[in-house]
Amino acid sequence: MGKRLISVCLLLLVVSLSGCVTPRQVDQPTCSSFEPRLVGPSPVAAREEINVLALSAGGPWGAYGIGFLNGWSEAQEPPERRRPQFDIAVGVSTGAMFVTHAFLGPEYDDLIREQIKSMTTRDVFHRRSLPAILLGDSLADTRPLRGMLEAVITRELLDQVAEAWEREGRRVAVIAVDMDCGNPELLDLTAVALERDRPDRISRYIDYLMASSASPVAFPPVFLEGRMLVDGALRQHIPSPGQIEELMSVYSEAPQQVNLYLIVNSPLMTIPECIRDHVLLIALRTGDVWTGERSVDSVALTIVQAERRGWRTRYVVASGTPCQPNPPPDDYFNPAFMQCQYEYGYRTAVSVESPWLEGLDALPSPRETDADFPHPCARR
């Protein structure tokens, strides 16, 4: 009874403190797009066929996508299994963390592989104290993650991103959500990379990556021009065809063929967990279940919309349960779990059978993916 009373008191305290927070004001009068932004035209002639990579959200399951990309780079036969050069790459949340390196090509595989192998929860965030939580905007501090990005997002890397546009008309972006307006925002990484004389060029690029992965409540939001940006996965699990078309608008002519590759860095299910009968814990679990359902819906909607446009759409999903147990909240980026996911993705890419799924019928359902789990509240 004592613990529940404390929880209720804390909740009431948070509600009362919220009335003391000064509302924010921004100079921009509308919910328009963020600058800088490329508006074209492309510096190269229109292509008849383009390759698009979309990387989803997924937390520590993102190691699956990195492993898959590494294995995909090694696949040479048959020719259609080879990893193409991507004309457009877009990431959401976890996918945003490695979309730049995936976009630039296999020569960056070693870097992101070593980064994921050495990553721990402490490299991503550390938990705030209770007073800091009550007076702040998140449960955790993500300065460690920013420091990790500062080590790999260099001037030379951004020059490579800029040159990919200038020489080949290729571009990369991430997606965040404007918390005030409620809109998904396409953040143009290529446009930032092209501003070579901008003093805050690198920090702005990192801001975009941090915004795309700023899971609300857990991680602090990112403020740009006074606007509050949070994790793109709040609205969508994976980039949509409409957002990809925005990036294609710089071409003088629409390509005749679009090859869309989706790497889904999650099992598309809600991980079973025995929930205690308490309002706060039930509220937290409600978010988990809703997130699992939204991820399935988002991937399905992207597949349907891409097929309606006549795009050839192929995808892989980190489904099944090869890596157990799942990481606990206090060690969410568990190295052993992420190494297992990396190896799972790598094995998927180099398997004899083609790893690619096509169409809605191949999309795993939550009932199928959780069939192997024992009930989490069962007596043992």
TrEMBL record:
Xref: Gene3D superfamilies: Cytosolic phospholipase A2 catalytic domain
Motif GXSXG mapped to chain: 91-95
UniProt-listed Pfam families: Patatin
Gene Ontology MF terms in the entry: hydrolase activity
Keyword Signal: yes
Keyword Signal: yes
UniProt signal peptide: 1-20
GO biological processes: lipid catabolic process
Active site, UniProt feature: S93, D231
InterPro entries, per the entry: Acyl_Trfase/lysoPLipase (IPR016035), PNPLA_dom (IPR002641)
Alphabetical keyword list: Hydrolase, Lipid degradation, Lipid metabolism, Signal
Motif window: DGA/G: 231-233
Domain PNPLA: 53-244
Protein name: Patatin
